[in-house]
Design brief:
The chain folds into four domains: 85 residues; 222 residues, Beta Barrel (Thrombin, subunit H); 98 residues, Pdz3 Domain (Roll); 99 residues, PDZ domain (Pdz3 Domain), CATH 2.30.42.10. It is of the alpha+beta class. Helix content is 30%, strand content 31%. The chain starts with a helix and ends with a strand.
Length: 520
């Protein structure tokens, strides 16, 4: 064998041997590292593992997959904790605070088909009655069992049952109603039970767009679960004045809170609360073409509702303020005619008249044509706004009114009195309504043309009012050919003529004379 061949053969053998040797050296080292990985991780503390990893690059590579899995698990646990904490939002907390104070109000009412045998003024139909059920919500305002709700929920109720969020039922009685503001106050006897009263907020301190929740019991006793329902939304608008049919109701919906939180049928009377769990309003009605919620709901400010509740607790009735100022809408033509200029950017209402014997007249400074621009520092935007602001005035509390004339501005303080018509004794006719005397103050309050007579003060037969046969503040000035001088005289005369057919009542309504006939 020649030398070149020998050299080649030796070279091949050397290379092969080196490759085998390297293979044996590398393979055991990798397996040892893999075997040691679990052992070291099990017996060494974290610090020792990190030191070993820093000193051995091979070990660091072997640890990569398990360390990544561990970090993923830790991140998942952290995420779960964050999500768990995030679930308990302000809305959840507020709901938990308010819900125990919310009750379901279940009302039994008797509807009567209007007939002459029932209300003396109708046509000859056979009397018929039926019992219907109405469902609403309410709010416990103190531990003694006083509950706020809407007047329209419990009006004409024959029986009221209240159910708490714990499913406990109580019979409730009406403490008082205020049809004007659509607020009613109920009372239950909790006995030894502990009631949770709601925390009331300040409806004068609201933020446009802040989160709110509407809570109520829209299904009443129809569900086995007594827990109220909760919907969330924001305050969509503040100080809303609702334009309504003046002949449909005496209720004034002014300076209302608007929300897009769903307020469904049966939620009337329940609370509207802020994210702190403070009640800021009483849910009252919605605008809806279908009857369901479309995100336009309205609530009565809680400051107004609380004031009315306080009046009802103290005396069983609401003391409505009387300033003695009649106003009308401010138009560009009026502005121009009063000397302000048609292009003037002034908001307010125009004083059209000042009622005699009223607090405004006694001030001695007002005159027709003055502009009322503010009440207690708040701008007056319209006639409805002026009416709404009077709902929030207390009898006997000083009110600061801002006025403008073409050449001057001035402030005037007036102390409102209780409406004269609400301070007089009622004489019951026994025919579904009561009367009061037409005093000079009442005559001024009503701007009555009649100098003598009796005034319809209250109507207990709702069908009379519903059909427009008789309305509150109608002035009865004559029965047949007999002039009326007092409520007592009118009641005595009606009792004598009750059995006679063809008796005619002569009434003044809104400055017009109308007639009503007693049919038996």
């Amino acid at each position: 064998m020649n030398k070149p061949v020998m050299k080649l053969l030796v070279s091949v053998l050397l290379i092969t041997g080196l490759m085998i040797l390297l293979g044996r050296l590398i393979a055991p080292r990798g397996r040892d590292v893999e075997n040691r990985e679990t052992t070291i991780s099990a017996v060494l503390p974290d610090s020792a593992e990190h030191e070993l990893a820093d000193s051995q690059p091979g070990y660091l590579l072997a640890q990569t997959a398990p360390a990544s899995q561990s970090r993923s698990v830790n991140r998942l646990k952290s995420l779960e904790q964050d999500l768990a904490g995030g679930r308990r939002t302000a809305i959840v907390t507020a709901s938990a605070r308010v819900a125990p104070s919310v009750v379901s109000v279940n009302v039994m009412q008797t509807e009567v088909v209007r007939t002459p045998y029932r209300n003396w003024f109708g046509y000859f139909y056979i009397p018929r009655q039926r019992t219907v059920q109405n469902i609403g919500s309410g709010l416990i305002i103190n531990s003694r069992g006083y509950i706020l709700t809407n007047d329209h929920v419990v009006h004409d109720a024959t029986k009221i049952t209240v159910s708490t969020s714990e499913g406990i039922e109580y019979d409730a009685e009406i403490v008082g109603l205020d049809d004007n503001s659509d607020i009613a106050l109920l009372k239950i006897d909790p006995g030894a039970d502990r009631l949770t009263a709601a925390q009331l907020g300040d409806s004068d301190d609201l933020l446009l767009g802040e989160w709110v929740i509407a809570i109520g019991s829209p299904f009443g006793l129809l569900l086995d679960d007594p827990q109220p329902t909760v919907t969330a939304g924001v305050i969509s608008a503040i100080g809303r004045d609702i334009v309504r049919d003046q002949n449909s109701s005496s209720q004034v919906y002014a300076n209302m809170i608007q929300t897009d939180a769903s307020i469904n049928p049966g939620n009337s009377g329940g609370p509207l609360a802020n994210a702190l769990g403070e009640v800021i309003g009483i849910n009252t009605f919605i605008f809806s073409p279908s009857g369901g919620s479309v995100g336009v709901g309205f609530a009565i400010p809680i400051n107004r509702a609380a004031r009315i509740a306080e009046d009802l607790i103290r005396g069983g009735k609401v003391r409505h303020p009387w300033l003695g100022i009649r106003v009308q809408k401010l138009t560009p033509d009026l502005l121009d005619g009063l000397g302000f200029g048609a292009q003037s950017r002034i908001s307010g209402v125009v004083v059209s008249s000042i009622q005699e014997h009223s607090p405004a007249e006694r001030s001695g400074r007002l005159q027709p044509g003055d502009l009322i621009v503010s009440v207690d520092g708040e701008t007056v935007r319209s006639v409805d706004d002026w009416t709404g602001k009077q709902l929030d005035i207390r009898v006997g509390s000083v009110v600061k009114l801002g006025f403008r004339r073409p050449e001057s501005e001035f402030m005037l303080t007036i102390t409102p009195e209780e409406l004269p018509s609400e301070t007089l004794k009622h004489e019951d006719t026994g025919m579904g309504f009561s009367l009061i005397d037409l005093t000079r103050e009442v005559r001024s309050q009503l701007d009555a043309r009649s100098e003598r007579g009796a005034v319809v003060a209250e109507i207990s037969d709702s069908d009379l009012e519903r059909q427009g046969r008789l309305l509150r503040y109608d002035i009865l000035y004559r029965i047949n050919d007999i002039p009326i001088n007092s409520a007592a005289q009118a009641v005595e005369l009606l009792k004598r003529l009750r059995s006679r057919r063809g008796t005619v009542l002569f009434l003044e309504r809104d400055g017009r004379s109308i007639r009503r006939y007693i049919t038996r």
